[in-house]
């Protein structure tokens, strides 16, 4: 009996290893397939990867090696350590063999790894030689196609810009001819045509350069070994655009805030402008506020509101918190301060003149040595047109520091007094001179009969008396013409009365000289008196 039990125990021990291997042998393997051919299989997992995932990853890595035109199979390396046998290519891991893999083979882990390494080198040599020739031919064909497409696009761009240029030239020529028929300066217009042609050529050149630049990444991407260059070239364009797009998206909340502030300010300015226009047109009035103050006041308030708006939105501007942006704004502020001192003084003077109201547009004025009509008045300058049609620009600071004479402000209410002075000798009665001057004034067109002209005796000189005729007019813009007519009438009235307007310096020694009036006004038979010479005893 003991021998029988001993025999059964030996039989159990002999059979038990076979039973333990059955589930292992029955485990399905997951193949690594290269060019539709199974290279080997994985039966176990490794790390976090299941056998299926492990086989897929290794297949992808090996196919990636095949597609590399710079791949050399002899560069594959096999290293062993205590737990793994690793096959690498230029420091890149292809796959590893672990102890569990050897349990599905009669070989040890190192021997199994040596077999995989030898098999992989042989298969990859054959596969890369076949793949390289075929893939290179395809890649060269694709490159030729891209190059041909680039040539076609460049030709198309040239034709398109040539057509656009011809259309512009033809349209321009027709317009110039039409303008020339209407008397427009066609020569000046023709000088713009070369500029437009040059601009078209620049745009065409930029488009062609852009096409060439965008085609280079496509060409480089065709060949595996130049794909990094393609990625880099695209990055030069895509990365800035991506940064701009992301910056714009991040700026949208601030942009909405800026838009709200601008819209509110804009409508406030429009409302104030409406009120100013109504005051100017006389729709309603404000006590002690003149209508001609409305628009200048509106302009000042508008500038203040927009300046305040800029101060409010400044923190929301992109880059406003950077040192560069702040430095540029300070630099511009310093330049503005140093370069606009005279402009600011003129602006301040313009504001002061606005509220002083010394004159308004359309008034006849004398500013310094300039006399004429005001045709423009703003914060910086005042423009005057003289009676000779000379447009003279005067800085407001010069007007404020000098004196201004307004001939129009009281002409319609009190009347503008025109005056002229003549000198007559003491031998003529002053009553006669007064009457003749007043008659001459009343005979002048533009002189008002009421209030009546009057005469002032301004000087009692050594040889004569100064008589000043003063007459009212409500037409200050015709001052020069009225003065001329007044002087002509004074001559006529004095000649008719036989009173000569002559310097007493002459008449005091004239003795035998004739009277100095026109012959038509001399008495009939008039003869010059002889010289009275008294012979001394």
UniProtKB/TrEMBL annotation:
TM annotation in the entry: 136-157, 202-223, 300-318, 330-356
Top-level taxon in the UniProt lineage: Bacteria
Cell location: Cell membrane
Domain Mechanosensitive ion channel MscS C-terminal: 421-501
Pfam family, one: MS_channel_3rd
Membrane topology qualifier: Multi-pass membrane protein
Residue ranges constituting the Mechanosensitive ion channel MscS domain according to the UniProt record: 343-408
Domain Mechanosensitive ion channel transmembrane helices 2/3 as annotated: residue spans: 299-340
Signal peptide interval: 1-20
Keywords from the named record: Cell membrane, Membrane, Signal, Transmembrane, Transmembrane helix
PANTHER family cross-referenced by the UniProt entry: SLL0590 PROTEIN, SMALL-CONDUCTANCE MECHANOSENSITIVE CHANNEL
UniProt similarity note: Belongs to the MscS (TC 1.A.23) family.
Protein name: Mechanosensitive ion channel family protein
Organism this protein belongs to: Mucilaginibacter aquariorum
């Amino acid at each position: 009996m003991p021998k029988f039990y001993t025999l059964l125990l030996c039989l159990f021990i002999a059979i038990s290893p076979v039973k333990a291997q059955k589930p292992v042998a029955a485990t399905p393997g997951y193949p690594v397939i290269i060019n539709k051919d199974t290279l080997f299989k994985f039966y176990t997992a490794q790390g976090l990867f299941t056998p299926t995932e492990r086989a897929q990853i290794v297949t992808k890595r090996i196919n990636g090696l095949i597609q590399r035109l710079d791949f050399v199979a002899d560069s594959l390396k096999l290293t062993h350590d205590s737990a793994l046998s690793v096959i690498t290519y230029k420091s890149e891991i292809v796959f590893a063999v672990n102890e569990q893999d050897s349990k599905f083979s009669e070989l040890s882990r190192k021997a199994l790894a040596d077999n995989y390494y030898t098999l992989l080198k042989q298969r990859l040599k054959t596969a890369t030689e076949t793949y390289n020739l075929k893939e290179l031919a395809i890649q060269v064909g694709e490159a030729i196609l891209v190059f041909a497409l680039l040539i076609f696009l460049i030709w198309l761009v040239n034709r398109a810009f040539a057509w656009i240029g011809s259309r512009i030239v033809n349209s321009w020529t027709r317009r110039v001819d039409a303008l020339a028929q209407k008397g427009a300066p066609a020569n000046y217009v023709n000088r713009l045509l070369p500029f437009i042609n040059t601009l078209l050529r620049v745009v065409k050149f930029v488009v062609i350069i852009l096409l060439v630049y965008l085609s280079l990444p496509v060409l480089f991407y065709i060949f595996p070994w130049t794909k990094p260059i393609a990625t880099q070239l695209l990055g030069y364009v895509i990365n800035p655009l991506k940064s701009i797009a992301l910056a714009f998206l991040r700026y949208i909340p601030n942009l909405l805030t800026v838009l709200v502030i601008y819209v509110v300010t804009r409508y406030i300015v429009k409302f104030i402008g409406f009120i100013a226009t109504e005051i100017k047109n006389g729709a309603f009035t404000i006590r002690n506020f003149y209508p001609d103050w409305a628009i200048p006041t509106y302009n000042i308030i508008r500038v203040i509101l927009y300046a305040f708006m800029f101060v409010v939105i400044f923190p929301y501007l992109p880059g406003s918190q950077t040192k560069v942006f702040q430095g540029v704004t300070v630099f511009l502020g310093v330049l503005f301060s140093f370069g606009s001192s005279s402009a600011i003084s003129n602006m301040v003077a313009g504001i002061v003149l606005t509220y002083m109201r010394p004159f308004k547009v359309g008034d006849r004025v004398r500013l310094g040595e300039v006399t004429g009509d005001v045709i423009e008045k703003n914060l910086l300058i005042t423009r005057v047109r003289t009676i000779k049609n000379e447009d003279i620009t005067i800085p407001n600071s010069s007007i404020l520091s000098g004196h201004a004479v307004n001939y129009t402000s009281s002409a319609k209410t009190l009347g503008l007094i025109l005056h002229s002075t003549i000198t007559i000798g003491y031998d003529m009665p002053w009553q006669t001179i007064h009457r003749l001057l007043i008659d001459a004034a009343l005979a002048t067109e533009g002189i008002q009969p009421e209030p009546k002209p009057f005469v002032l005796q301004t000087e009692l000189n050594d040889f004569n008396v100064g008589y000043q005729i003063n007459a009212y007019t409500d037409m200050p813009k015709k001052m020069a013409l009225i003065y001329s007519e007044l002087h002509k009438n004074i001559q006529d009235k004095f000649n008719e009365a036989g009173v000569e307007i002559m310097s007493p310096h002459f008449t005091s020694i004239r003795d035998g000289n004739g009277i100095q009036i026109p012959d038509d006004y001399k008495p009939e038979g008039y003869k010059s008196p002889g010289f009275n010479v008294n012979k001394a005893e």
